[in-house]
Design goal:
Aspartate Aminotransferase, domain 1; about 500 residues; alpha/beta; 16 helices; seven-stranded mixed β-sheet; Ornithine Decarboxylase, Chain A, domain 4; binds pyridoxal-5'-phosphate; single chain
Length: about 500
């Protein structure tokens, strides 16, 4: 479990005005409630005027309450960018529970926290060491900060079409190579766990980084729950990370778009983080999102020891049931011997032996049992088990998977069972321009056939998972184009989602 930093008593923290706030209270939720109860003649934004002018169609859907509590920076609620009162209390309580020295609430998701963490550690021209399978937010952070990437190529399992994490020796090699070239390494960035739940050895990586005086930033978007059960991997902060960004809205229970940025120690300049967050976030943060972070923290702290027991049991039960279904494989740590730790609440099932793609299996599950997966890939589907998962839904999932297996084990499908491992998409990365140069370079559109060997001018990224196949500035390779054929139709944000054309840098 996360070790609680020393406070006045085990379950209380001291806030600046010397009030003792028990950690079972949600200061921001309480402040929002008290503020909404006032009989205020309001002449402020938002224009729905505390629900009085709320659009009826949405009121019918969600009721008036969300509008009544959708309040702006009123004096009694405090300001996110110079926190005091309830926001400060709520952030301190969160820091306490997650084992941080400072915690910032975010309304722009982990995306904005990653951008802030990279901008706060890397100045233009300085090097950021990161895995090539980083989330797009790390790429946009390099456009914003002017940092230059030194990519580590993750281990890749082509049968699963899944990338792993990075090893300490990869980090060490990257640091040594840059140092030998006389380059300044400003930060190391690691994603752990990955979308598929694969965890890197952060204890060893943080030890290495600190040996060289380099801060470690961890994209822990998928790991806000880590450390809150004896059989779960430790959290990034527990393993020595300096900054960890968590999507509280992913596995924990805050509202979508709400995340937290945690800091530990003093390698990173706290004031620079504040300035970056102020640069990146809306000047009108939603207090509903902020209050949902406060509420999610209380939910966790009320019951830290046991809150994940049921979810963990259900995850084990599901795995055991699925392992008995012919033709369906379960992603285990044995697939990645260098990465022995996988988040027990993230389940990935493969359909290769049935001759089915993840997309086909997903469609069958949806049509047959109305089962909705978190992530679908060429070879697999991934499911997130969380505090709301119930046995009834697990049984529906298992019965859906049984149906997928039975219908696909026909002679026709078995014959189709060709070994079609995918190509490793990141194996031959060649950088023509760094992300910031590529972002601002002149561009033109060419047909996909013409693009081979040119410098890509746009981000080509299947979403989810949000890991770019081609990053602006990279030379377009045959391997990348072949891989894109497999994931076509699932690309978001490209100028031509069907990929008959592509934007290149015109240099
Ligand atoms: C690995 C990873 N990092 C960061 C993010 C961004 O998180 P958010 O959606 O909270 O902005 C995601 C989103 O899916 C992700 O998968």
């Amino acid at each position: 479990m996360i070790e609680m930093p020393k406070s006045s008593t085990e379950n209380e923290i001291l806030v600046p005005n010397s009030q003792i706030v028990p950690d079972s209270l949600a200061p921001l939720v309480c402040a929002l409630e008290a503020s909404a109860k006032q009989d205020a003649a309001s002449f402020h934004f938002p224009g729905h005027n505390r629900g009085r002018a709320a659009p009826s169609s949405l009121v019918q859907l969600i009721g008036l309450r969300p509008f009544i509590h959708d309040l702006p920076e009123l004096p009694e609620l405090g300001n996110l960018f110079s926190p005091e009162g309830p926001i400060l209390e709520a952030q301190k309580q969160a820091a306490n529970v997650f084992g941080a020295s400072d915690t910032w609430f975010l309304v722009g998701g982990t995306t904005c926290g990653i951008q802030a963490a990279i901008m706060a550690t890397c100045s233009p021209g300085e090097y950021l060491i990161l895995p090539r399978n980083s989330h797009i937010s790390a790429i946009s952070a390099m456009v914003l900060s002017g940092a230059i990437p030194k990519y580590m190529i993750p281990e890749y399992d082509c049968d699963w079409d899944i990338a792993a994490g990075v090893t300490p020796s990869q980090v060490e090699k990257a640091i040594e190579e840059l140092k030998k070239d006389g380059q300044k390494v400003s930060a190391v960035f690691v994603t752990s766990p990955t979308y598929h739940g694969i965890c890197s050895n952060l204890s060893e990586i943080s030890r290495l980084c600190h040996h060289h005086g380099i801060p470690l930033i961890v994209d822990e978007a998928h790991g806000a729950h880590l450390g809150f059960h004896p059989h779960m991997p430790s959290s990034a902060l527990q393993q020595g990370a300096d900054l960890a960004v968590q999507s509280t809205h992913k596995v924990l229970c805050s509202l979508t778009q709400s995340s937290m940025l945690h800091m530990s120690g003093d390698i990173v300049d706290r004031e620079r983080i504040c300035r970056c967050l102020q640069t990146l976030q809306s000047t009108s943060p939603s207090y509903l999102l902020l209050a949902s972070l406060d509420a999610a923290r209380v939910q966790l702290s009320e019951n830290q020891e046991t809150i994940f027991n049921k979810a963990m049991d259900l995850a084990v039960e599901t795995k055991n049931l699925v392992k008995c279904i012919p033709g369906i494989s379960v992603l285990e740590s044995s697939s990645f011997p260098n990465f022995p730790v996988i988040d027990p609440l993230r389940l990935t099932f493969g359909f290769r032996q049935l001759g089915l793609s993840g997309y086909e299996a997903d469609e069958m599950l949806y049509e047959d049992q109305m089962v909705v997966c978190e992530l679908v890939g060429t070879q697999s589907i991934t499911l997130a088990i969380n505090l709301g998962t119930c046995r009834k839904h697990i049984l529906r999932l298992v019965s859906g998977l049984q149906h997928v297996s039975e219908t696909s084990l026909s002679v026709e499908k078995v014959e189709k069972r060709v070994e079609h491992s995918v190509l490793e998409p990141f194996a031959d990365i060649n950088i023509g321009l760094n992300p910031r140069e590529a972002f601002f370079a002149r561009k033109r559109k060419v047909s996909i056939g013409e693009s081979l060997g040119k410098i890509c001018g746009e981000l080509i990224c299947p979403y989810p998972p949000g890991i770019p196949v081609i990053i602006p500035g990279e030379i377009i390779t045959e391997r990348a184009l072949d891989y894109l054929q497999l994931v076509k139709g699932n690309i978001s944000g490209a100028s031509d989602p069907l990929l008959s054309s592509i934007i290149i840098c015109d240099n």
